[in-house]
Model the fold of this input.
Amino acid sequence: MTFVNVAIHQVTHTCPANPQPHVVDTRRVIVAYVPGGPCRQPIRVRLNNSTVMVACGRRLPAARQCPACRITVIERDIITTHLGYEGPQRSASEAAAR
Ligand SMILES: [Zn+2]
Ligand SMILES: [Zn+2]
Done:
């Protein structure tokens, strides 16, 4: 089983529209990747005159992959970054920077 640990990264701020801190952006950040090891049911693929074995995780939909290739996503913790107060002035300069 391949495990991917992700953290939810929430960006909050306060602004003229809402003085209470509120979420303006949510992202998923991969914090750890634990490979499940070699594929248990490699698939034979014809390549010119020879055949090669490829991991089933690279060919099959998730439901048909072997336990080693299947990816399990674990949501671990929530990271919150508070940007503080963002008024119109700062928003304008941020927009110009992009
Ligand atoms: Zn806001
Ligand atoms: Zn596999």
